[in-house]
Design brief:
Layout: H1 8-19, E1 21-22, H2 24-31, H3 35-48, E2 53-58, E3 61-66, H4 69-81, H5 89-101, H6 109-116, H7 120-134, E4 139-144, E5 148-153, H8 155-165, H9 167-171, H10 178-190, H11 195-213, H12 232-248, H13 254-265, H14 283-300, H15 309-325, H16 335-341, H17 343-360, H18 366-386, E6 392-396, H19 401-414, E7 420-424, H20 431-434, E8 439-442, E9 454-456, H21 463-478, H22 490-494, E10 500-502, H23 509-522, H24 528-540, E11 549-550, E12 553-556, E13 562-567, E14 579-586, H25 593-607, H26 610-617, H27 622-631
Parallel strand pairs: 6-7, 6-8, 8-9, 10-13, 11-14, 12-14
Antiparallel strand pairs: 1-3, 2-3, 4-5, 13-14
């Protein structure tokens, strides 16, 4: 359990400043408070900014408007420093741990209360909280209130607790001898260690030096740490230890060297090839990567193509396994943002976690899910760019060279570089001419009968909106699906009145899937073969997304994309299945993984919004679903 920054106003201001636009709900979730508290915090922040800036809400989203950049920086610095020391629980926890770490006899709680200028009740409450936090570390706070308290337990895990939870608050002012600091910086340079690894190594080094100086040394270590003896990270740490013994006159044992090598064995990443001299990749890790990709392909129907980054991912997993095995946990402050912005990649990371835990017998913490999702998001983006075809585009507009030039500049921002444009006036075109193109863009209403997509736009248009329209129409035209203009939701464009179903309650998920398939057969939309394949896939791997949502889907040999939406009406307090999205995706290159990724993206976003899940399960028709999406169109941007 890690302590987050306790200056909520500073955290709130920083988040709004960097996010640009954010909802009250997102802020409340981020800060672990209610929306009412966030409103009050924003009001307080606006007062503290003293007119240099203001946080205002518009269209459901809050933004920071800077009115005086120079004065804003001064106000912001004051807010960041605004912290009454002992009114902060996190700071009190750190103070207590600091005293216990450096005490040579039991510490009276009465003394702690006096030093912190708080009541005994507050100290006892803080101690209760600290004992809870220490439960997973094989460390206890022992003793009695009147007789004094002390730390007891495994020294290795006590150090790991400090590193993970409160190192900054206890050791932020600790200074090493100048020659020692210069030596560590030089050897890190020599081995090309990245900034993050240097920082973790330096923290471990300072903590080790302080604990040895206090007479608290590592003795017998858990057997799993024995695997690190004589590895390259161990040899690196031993080199540092020997130099430290000479410079500081300390005696550093083999067990201390093991502790010192943990940041190297579990480093976050390497910056270049030379930095990999401390790394040895096992065949087992390489096989694990293949197994992860196979699992994603099987359960999600996504096939990740190898890229240059795949080697980096192999190295990352190697380090991660060491971190999990030796319990050297890293913080990932970007985890909430990654989960929100890259839901499909995060889903892939969750599958990777399952594969890793099953094959390697380690527990993967949430922070590592965020790191893996970052890799998967890059894989998906690179694959998207590689698979993005150039278009042969016909543009129908009035023959004005300035207008034509302006449109061409705008379109080049949203279409692939290999796209070719041919401009026509309305009088010059007919069905035969336009049918030669992949896409038609027009500023005038056309009376044509062609199968290729037609997108209407003005001479000056919103590039983001047009890009979304073009991508959506490309997906849907390949699957022979009608486009519903203006909707940001691909799912809403896929749902038709005849493919919206109200599901019987109290069916199992398998029975619900069977019900949907039977209904689609009655509508003559699928074949018995399709039904059989879907049920066979469900037998092998359940497609129940979570307790509320199911997503049965298959690739099949057909030309049309099949999509159905089933809702099961439930009261808010009821448990059980609420929504089922059923998808049959033609197994061809035209309808590529981007369609599936977009659908996954929307489903994951819906699943993460319990209010929306409950609203959708109460709808009674496709028309009501369209109306609901229109009202919440911004949600699907």
């Amino acid at each position: 359990m890690q302590l987050e920054g306790d200056n909520r106003l500073a955290n709130l201001l920083s988040y709004i400043e960097f996010k640009k636009a954010v909802t009250l709900e997102e802020l409340a979730d981020r800060m672990h408070v209610t929306t009412k508290t966030i409103r009050n915090d924003i009001k307080e922040l606006n007062g503290m900014l003293e007119g240099s800036g203001v946080i205002e809400g518009f269209g459901g989203k809050y933004r920071l408007y800077l009115l005086n950049q120079e004065y804003f920086r001064k106000c912001r610095d004051k807010i960041y420093m605004h912290d009454e020391y002992m009114n902060s629980p996190a700071k009190r926890y750190a103070y207590i741990m600091d005293q216990l770490l450096h005490a040579d006899k039991p510490y009276l709680t009465e003394e702690l209360a006096y030093e912190m200028n708080v009541g005994r009740t507050t100290v006892n409450g803080d101690l209760k909280r600290l004992r809870t936090m220490l439960e997973g570390y094989n460390v206890k706070i022992k003793g009695q209130v009147n007789a004094g308290i002390w730390l007891s337990g495994d020294e290795m895990y006590l150090r790991l607790f400090i590193l993970e939870n409160m190192y900054e608050m206890i050791y932020k002012n600790y200074e090493l001898p100048e020659d020692v600091g210069e030596y560590i910086e030089a050897i890190c340079d020599r081995y090309y260690l990245d900034t993050g690894t240097r920082d973790y190594f330096l923290r471990s080094f300072i903590l080790m030096v302080d604990r040895i100086s206090q007479g608290h040394t590592l003795k017998e270590l858990d057997k799993k740490y024995h695997d690190l003896y004589e590895t390259d990270p161990f040899k690196f740490a031993r080199k540092v230890a020997k130099a430290t013994e000479k410079m500081m006159g300390l005696s550093i044992s083999q067990e201390e060297v093991i502790f010192l090598c943990l940041p190297i064995a579990g480093m976050r990443t390497t910056t270049n090839e030379k930095g990999r001299q401390l790394i040895e990749i096992s065949e087992e890790v390489a096989e694990l990567v293949i197994a992860i990709m196979d699992r994603i392909a099987y359960e999600m129907n996504f096939h990740i193509s190898p890229t240059d980054l795949l080697d980096e991912f192999v190295y990352h997993l190697n380090f991660m396994l060491n971190r999990m095995k030796y319990r050297f946990y890293l913080k990932n402050p970007l985890l909430p943002d990654i989960k929100q912005k890259y839901p499909v990649a995060y889903k892939m990371a969750e599958l990777a976690k399952k594969e890793i835990e099953e094959r390697m017998s380690v527990k993967v913490i949430d922070a590592e899910l965020g790191f893996m999702a970052s890799y998967f998001s890059v894989f998906l983006e690179e694959q998207k760019v590689m698979g993005r075809p150039g278009y042969h585009v016909a543009i129908v507009t009035k023959n004005n060279m300035t207008t034509i030039r302006l449109m061409e500049i705008q379109l080049k921002k949203v279409l692939p570089d290999s796209t070719t444009f041919v401009f026509y006036e309305k009088e010059e075109i007919n069905d035969k001419i336009l049918s030669r193109y992949d896409l038609v863009l027009s500023t005038e209403r056309l009376q044509v009968d062609i199968k290729i997509p037609v997108v209407y736009l003005s001479e000056i248009f919103d590039e983001t909106e047009i890009s979304r329209k073009i991508e959506q129409i490309r997906f849907l035209s390949k699957g022979e699906i009608k486009v519903k203009s203006g909707l940001n939701s691909l799912i809403a464009s896929l749902v038709e009145p005849e493919t919206f179903f109200i599901l019987p309650k109290n069916l199992s998920f398998k029975e619900t899937v069977e019900y949907l398939l039977d209904s689609l057969i009655e509508e003559e939309m699928i074949t018995e073969e399709f039904r059989t394949r879907m049920l066979q896939r469900e037998e092998k791997v359940t497609m129940l997304f979570d307790e509320n949502i199911g997503f049965p889907h298959i690739l099949y040999e057909g030309s049309s994309l099949i999509f159905a939406l089933g809702v099961m009406k439930r009261e808010k307090e009821e448990e059980g299945l609420r929504i089922v999205f059923l998808l049959g995706l033609p197994n061809n290159k035209d309808l590529d993984d981007q369609v599936l990724m977009k659908i996954y993206d929307e489903i994951i976003s819906i699943a993460g919004n319990q209010e929306m899940v409950q609203d959708i399960c109460q709808l009674e028709s496709a028309r009501e679903f369209y109306d609901y999406v229109i009202k919440n169109n911004d949600f699907f941007e």
